[in-house]
Every structure is written in C-alpha cells, then in structure tokens.
Amino acid sequence: MTQALPNIVSSLYERFGHLPGVTIEVHKELVAINIINDVASGTIFLQGAQVTHYERHCEPPILWLSDACDYKAGVPLRGGIPVCWPWFANLSHNPDDVKVQIDALDTPKGAHGLVRSINWTVEDIVPQDNETHLCLMLLPHEEIPEWPYQATLKLMITIGAELTVKLEVHNTGERSFVHTCALHSYFSVGDIEQTSITGLEDATYIDALKEWASFQQHGTLSINEEVDRIYQLNSVTSEKYQRVAQIHDTSNNRVINLHQIDAKSLVVWNPWIEKSKQLSNFPNESYQEMICLETANTLTHMRKVTPGGLELMGFMVK
Ligand SMILES: O=P(O)(O)OC[C@H]1O[C@@H](O)[C@H](O)[C@@H](O)[C@@H]1O
C-alpha cells in the first residue's frame, strides 16, 4: 500500500462524505468499508475487493471468515469472497491457452491468480434503505507491472436482503486475453456434518482429489470427508440468474440458495481434517463451520476477452 492508511480513510470520506450506514475502518494493515442498512450488514476490504462479512439482521452470518486472519498487506484474508483472476486454482490445472499466456509473464504464479492481495479502488458507494451498492475497480496493467493487457476489472456488490457479487472484465486494449476466474465464497454453516448440498444432482464434476478425473453426481452431496470438486453447469446462461445449488445448513435451520449468472462452473471445497492443518490462517477445527461454493468459469469454461469485449459473471445469495 503506497498511501498511508489514515490518508486512505480520510480521502474516502472526502470523496464520498459521511454516507448513512457507511463507515471506513482500519484493521491492522488493511482498510475496510462497513455497511449497515435496514436489512443487512456487510464488510468489504479494499485489498482484493474482498467481501468478508454479510449478515441479514437477526440471522447468523452467511459468510465465514477465519478468526486467524492476520490482516497483513499482501496476504489474502482466509474467508469471505476472495476474487481469483486471471486464473483459478494452480496454473498447472488451467487450459493451455491460460498457461501459455501466464507462463510468458515474469510474475509470481501462485494459486488463484494475481488480484486477491492488491488494493482495489472504490468507484462508487450508493446507500439506500434496503440495499447498499458498491463498486470497486482495478486496472491490472497499472497495478501489476508484468500484466501486459489493458483491462478494467469491476467488482459490483449489493448488500441487502440478498447478496449479489458480479465481476466485470473489460478489455480496453488492442490485444485479446484469456482468463479463468472465481468468486471463491466461504459460506458459514453451523455444523458441516449436518450440512448437505442439493441442486447438483446429475451434474458432471472434475474431482481434484482423484487425479482430476470426471464423475457424475448422484443425489445430494453430503460432506463427510475432504471435498475439492469443480462442477460444470452448462445450463447457466448470461440472460438471468439461475438457481444452481442450495446449502442445507440444518443446525442453523436454514437454506442458503445460490444463484449464478454467466458462471458455468461451481467449485465445492472443504479441506476436512488433515488439509486444514496445512492451510494458512485456518484454525484446525474450522473445517466444521465452513463450506466453499465458488462461482467460477474455469477449465472448459475459460473465457477469451477480445478488444472492447466485456465479460460479466456473478452470483446472488437468497
Ligand atoms: O489456500 P488457497 O490458495 O486460498 O486455496 C484454497 C483452496 O481453494 C479452492 O478453490 C481449491 O479448490 C482448493 O484446492 C484450495 O486448497
């Protein structure tokens, strides 16, 4: 972060004024925007445009955030909704076009791309009684010296009775580029052993724990061991949100409904016992209280963005 934290906070207040239900806070080395309106509350960090909290009043939080986050600049927070772009997962598991494009760059090639630990700028905050809209923006060619393609990334978030998060990728340059991406949502559940997922019946998935082989889902998905799967949802369109999965969070007596638009992949991940011990900023027992359902376009759903082209994908939680 080049600007001192208090300066970032004061310049945001100067730009937007003191908007109702909007406060800007510093968490150690990071700046966050807190939202509260008549129906819900939320928190969005500038680093990674990472939504870390969403809760409807009088209900348990919908998103999970680790208690072990250290709020350090350059380290993505464990939980909430990290934005993965321009590649998802390890580069080695991406389509050849993505690998070739990224291999040519002199940039770190860790999992989940380049933008989850960079500060995004705040484009807009619009508070209303029942929903608050935010837009965060990133110009990757300006923030990542090695990224050679001109583009504008926008993350559009609505905090209301529903949570919507949309990622827009606009090619503003003269060369095409490809990407895979994900909104890597960590959902909070009361007890993973009393949690099941419906909506994926009969869907095809790639199992990252079984040598990336392809399988078909039969019936409800219960989580009682490590799960790391990429479901391919070919029927999702760019026309309207489509209900893709439901998390039955039985111990909280609720169902979280996930709808997607123009996002044809859904990653389901829980690290379970052994993998939990290897993850950064992840308490050993936390696998019991979270499940990732990650709205994505990956593998065969890689996207090519031609000059002037604009890609939009996202999800809504009802
Ligand atoms: O530790 P990271 O880089 O945030 O990744 C967490 C997980 O992210 C998921 O999307 C992947 O499917 C998992 O394989 C991975 O372990």
From TrEMBL:
GO biological process: carbohydrate metabolic process
Keywords: Isomerase
Annotated protein name in UniProt: Putative glucose-6-phosphate 1-epimerase
Organism: Marinibactrum halimedae
Any one GO molecular function term: carbohydrate binding
Catalysed conversion reaction: alpha-D-glucose 6-phosphate = beta-D-glucose 6-phosphate
Enzymatic class: isomerase
Catalytic residue positions: 184, 294
Pfam families: Aldose_epim (PF01263)
EC number annotated for this UniProt entry: 5.1.3.15
Lineage summary: Bacteria, Pseudomonadati, Pseudomonadota, Gammaproteobacteria, Cellvibrionales
Family the entry assigns: Belongs to the glucose-6-phosphate 1-epimerase family.
InterPro entries hit by this protein: Aldose_1/G6P_1-epimerase, G6P_1-epimerase, Gal_mutarotase_sf_dom, GH-type_carb-bd
Domain of life: Bacteria
